[in-house]
């Protein structure tokens, strides 16, 4: 399946760089894949009413709402200015939401996209809305997400797959198949495979065979966990392979937590220097 509908959000980051960078990436990918680009311009009311001091006046709430409306209008205007000269198909919508309700809005808009192109949710200038939007696309919309760090190239000639035999990892590989078929080199990285697992005699072998039937020639690298975190081993291997893209499953913690991306997923995104393709 080709990627024919791309989705992204633009928000008012502290430095503005994230939204601009991800819009540039989304435009480039839409052109390369002849895809339609859907953009959601967000204005976020970050007021946490449940934690506000007693006796706060309605005027304060009205001010924060007006600020969010202005924010959304500014983001829409900037996005239209950026997209109008482009030779791609695109549409833009605007939404004003409270931070707690952002996930539902993003999930509703992203669920009919083939791929969500999102900025890295962590780092300088990033707010809670960036993480919430990424999580909503992944977990609620069930849409694969391509997280694009600032300045990362979009030439996916060399790809590393972080493979742990899990359902999430397999789903990510399936969703990334159009990219994998176009890549010049694909490497399956298996870290400390279990001695008694289903692939104990041939780690990554079944995945490699399946990919070969789709015309993807993949090599398998079995890696020892020589660094404290799995994400560090993956990052080092991506650098060693001179990879342009990392494909991995996305894993989450309890929904009772505000932030559900955790463990290897979160650590990988925090230090990512190349785009990361994820699915859950």
Write the layout of secondary structure elements.
Elements (H helix, E strand, L loop, with lengths): L4 E6 L6 H17 L2 E10 L12 H26 L5 E10 L3 H9 L4 E5 L8 H13 L4 E4 L9 E6 L3 H9 L1 H6 L2 E7 L13 H8 L5 E6 L6 H11 L4 E5 L13 H8 L5 E4 L1
Parallel strand pairs: 1-2, 1-4, 2-3, 4-5, 6-7, 6-9, 7-8, 9-10
Antiparallel strand pairs: 5-10
Helix pairs in contact: 3-4, 8-9
Can you walk me through this structure?
This protein is of the alpha/beta class and 280 residues long. It folds into 2 domains: 5-148, Rossmann fold, CATH 3.40.50.620; 158-279, Rossmann fold (3-Layer(aba) Sandwich). 38% of the residues lie in helices and 22% in strands. The protein has helices spanning 17-33, 58-83, 102-110, 128-140, 167-175, 177-182, 205-212, 230-240, 263-270; strands at 5-10, 36-45, 89-98, 115-119, 145-148, 158-163, 185-191, 218-223, 245-249, 276-279. A 10-stranded mixed sheet has the order 3-2-1-4-5-10-9-6-7-8, with helices on both faces. Helix 7 links the parallel strand 7 (185-191) and strand 8 (218-223). The longest helix is centred in the N-terminal third of the chain and has 26 residues, at 58-83. It is globular and about 65 Å long. The two termini are 18 Å apart.
């Amino acid at each position: 399946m080709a990627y024919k509908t791309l989705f992204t959000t633009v928000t008012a980051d502290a430095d503005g760089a994230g939204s601009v960078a991800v819009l540039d990436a989304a435009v480039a990918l839409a052109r390369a894949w002849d895809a339609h680009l859907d953009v959601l311009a967000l204005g976020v009311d970050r007021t946490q009413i449940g934690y506000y001091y007693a006796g706060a006046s309605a005027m304060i709430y009205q001010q924060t709402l007006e600020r969010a409306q202005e924010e959304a209008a500014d983001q829409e205007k900037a996005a239209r200015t950026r997209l109008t000269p482009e030779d791609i198909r695109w549409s833009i919508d605007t939404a004003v939401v409270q931070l707690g309700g952002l996930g539902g809005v993003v999930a509703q808009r992203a669920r009919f996209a083939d791929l969500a192109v999102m900025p890295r949710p962590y780092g300088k200038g990033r707010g809670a809305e960036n993480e919430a939007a990424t999580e909503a696309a992944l977990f609620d919309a069930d849409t694969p997400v391509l997280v694009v760090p600032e300045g990362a190239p979009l030439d996916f000639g060399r790809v590393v797959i972080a493979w742990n035999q899990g359902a999430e990892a397999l789903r990510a590989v399936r969703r990334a198949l159009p990219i994998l078929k176009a890549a010049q080199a694909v490497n399956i990285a298996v870290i400390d495979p279990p001695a008694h697992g289903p692939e104990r005699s041939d780690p990554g072998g079944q995945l490699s065979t399946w990919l070969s039937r789709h015309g993807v020639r993949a090599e398998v690298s079995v890696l020892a966990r020589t660094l404290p975190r799995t994400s560090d081993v993956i990052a080092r291997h991506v650098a060693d392979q001179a990879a342009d893209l990392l494909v991995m499953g996305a894993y989450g913690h309890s929904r009772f937590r505000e932030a559900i991306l955790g463990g290897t997923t979160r650590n990988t995104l925090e230090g990512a220097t190349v785009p990361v393709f994820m699915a859950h």
